[in-house]
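Our working data are protein records whose layout never changes between entries. The record below serves as our worked example for the rest of this section:
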Amino acid sequence: MSGQSSGNILQAQDSTGAALATIDYQGNLTVKRGTFNGTLTVNGHVITGNTSGTTTASVSANAGTGATCTVTGDDTAGRITLVTGSASWAAGAQCTINFSSSFASAPYPVISPAGTADTSFVKTYVAPFTNNFDVRFQAADNASHTFVWDYFNAQ
């Protein structure tokens, strides 16, 4: 006896025929939305992604002349790289991480230094909003630095 080799084994649909949940022939479960009222155990990796667009970064004027900010990742997790300008940078917002899809309320981003530059002298903190979060500094100097952080963001 051979098993199914393509398509969905099971699919639940809403009144318009849109899929709410499917199990394909390989055992992959896809659910439009889920709520767990108990323990969720993952015996593998947690992989996040954006199906609604691309997470982007924009540099603030506070980061100084010629500064750049980039992000690799998605709304939930990724890496931020900020290269401050060589002069005229100041405390405050340095870089904004723009979500591909807004959260219902401001999430709780956590960032952790991942690069080689010492971030302690700038005293990094974040300011979250529903559609983005800012990486901010409490202090600055006038030398160009490269800062790298990993982030995890959840609501």
